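Researcher: Please translate sequence to structure tokens.
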Amino acid sequence: MISLDIVLMVGLLGLILGSFCNVVIARLPKMIEQEWEYEHAVFAHEQDPEQWPVPAEPNLSLSSPRSHCPHCKTTLRWYELIPVLSWAWQRGACRHCGKSIAWTYPLVELSSAALAVAAVIYFGLSLQALAAYVFLMFLLAGTIIDAQTQWLPDKITLPLLWLGLLFTSLGLNPLAVSLSSAVWGCMLGWGLLWSLATGFKVITGKHGMGGGDIKLLAALGAWLGPLALPSVLLAASLLGLTQALWLRWRHGQQGAFAFGPALAIAGAMIFLWGLQ
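Model: Translation complete:
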């Protein structure tokens, strides 16, 4: 039985890690874009030094610059960075410019705390609890990034895949999936969506699915095993269809939309169902 003191400490740690997750969600896509622009500028400079100047190196990282308002860029003080409380105290708006701060910030922090507490209550203070928390937090970060940008970065999907194989190889998979099942799940997850995406491209000449979705399903296979993937795809398809109908009815939107959130939510649902 986990004591109340431990639950509170784990919840507090979850809030802090959720705040860091918000930094990852906000900065990682911009950091990768800066890296691409820098590499392109370096290549252009090497081809024609006279026309293209030496590019400045990217200055954005997870630690620099200090946390600031996304609108007015004012550096925030420590009391403006307290998870959930600062957002509530400021009524969801910046103290300096008055513009609203997205509700996803406290949502991620509260979700992180809830997942950390749930993992410790279920598994105790163990590495399996850490594995479950890491898995679900990666899915949460990927869901929000993809929903905001229609892009699942490799720096989310590939670490999730390798961590799934690592925890499984150490006998710490929360669902007790064997290493051979994790490997086959990874291969099957990759192969299923790669085949669908390739077939769609051959038939229509258009890209129907991003590479991030393929890597995400491979990562889910590494954590959940191959037998769970049909359920994941079925649930994700239903969620994706619901999302497409909602966007078309509510906003008149047609065409491409992010499928990664549906995959991530379906994976989390099957994972939690598997724990039962």
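Researcher: Any highlights?
Model: The radius of gyration is 21 Å.
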